[in-house]
Amino acid sequence: MIILPGGLALDYHQILNARGHMAATREDFTQAEAFLARHPAVRCVDLLLPDMNGVPRGKRVEADDLRQVYERGMLLPGSMFALDVLGGTIQSTGFGFDEGDADRPCLPVPGTLQPCPWLGPEVAQLQVSMVDHDGSPFFGDPRHQLGRVLERFAALGLTPVVAIELEFYLVDRERTAAGYAQPPASPLTGRREFRTQINSMVDLDAHSTVLRAIVEACRAQDVPGGMTLAEYGPAQWEVNLRHVADAQVACDHAIRLKRIVKGVALAQGFEATFMAKPYREMAGSGAHIHVSLLDAAGRNVFESEDPVGSAPLRQCAAGLLATMADAMAIFGPNANSYRRLRPESYVPMHPTWGYNNRGVAVRVPVSGAVDRRLEHRVAGADVNPYLLTAAVLGGMLTGLERRLEAPAPLIGNAYHQRIDAEPLPNDWREAILRFEASDAMRELFGERFVQLYSTLKRGEWEDFASQVSPLEHEWYLSQL
Q: pTM above the 0.90 mark?
């Protein structure tokens, strides 16, 4: 039973039946029972609700109580989606004390009940998503926002096929004397390396134990990992997830991957971070998303022997370029996100596109005609994968529905050419204000979500901007 503002009482069974969730819940628990039978050592289950920053929130329950979660849902307040990155509620969103910090039901996401090898055989995890008081999808849950976008593609007879690449750093669990992150000592040499070695097999050998444990945990959780490669920074890595014809599931995989990486790293004596720019002089960490579109017959509508010859591909690219600046608050959700935006650092500075060019914002990778796709290269690894994917797919919809035509693909160095487009916002506050004022973002996400997200991020920015940093003391305290 849930008590709403004004004293109205609703039973969970009424809520679930009203929206058709009950049958799915019963079916899902049959699968959960089979999971528990296969994993008899499981004693507790972590119920995970990724918040607006993609940080897992939730509760740990006994395995014996799991049936109740499937049949009635788990209660969490709507303010889960009004939390800043430190876990404090931004009260100006209206989802704190203004509504009595009201609870809403959270329902299991199918296919996400998985073991947690790094925590031992007694622990499993299950992702949930939030519904509103009347059983409808809660607008503030990013997973539901992506679902709304996918419904629009379905109305066009199209299915996005999505793959996400995530970069991260392994860092020493001990900070420097000044409190900064530092690379871990090599397990092979014992030395702490500060160098750039892209695709280094030596680095792969040195960290093979932790990387192998990450791969094994991905297999245990049905996360379809592909290649793992050493990136530019010291102990920086990229994991490529395989293409999935369900964008929500692709993002579920990304959420699980982040928890796997962080959990396995800690178990192996490291710390892992998806912070966009942990080192000033080293490469940032990005989140690249690859997208193709299938029609009702299962054909890739981007298919063309000419890499940029498909009209739908060009329209989608045009839509991405047209909406990119307005969506920067999604692609760069934190103050640190904008530290990545540096020339010739494989991070785009303008809305550009091109073939086989890693300097542009939207790349057409080298592939066979049937595998033709777009790669969006703007976001940092600190992004919420559901919002990233919703914004990218929303931009593509804009191009398709309005039949936009992309400019000529850029050839050569994207950082040394004159671009007939304004630069992307490189300041957090500017990006938030632009997102808040954007008609395109309101059309995509809805007025309520734009206001919620903008208010949340503006609150984070105001708190961050008010802090006096050690660097300010170093520069100004004695000199002024």
A: yes
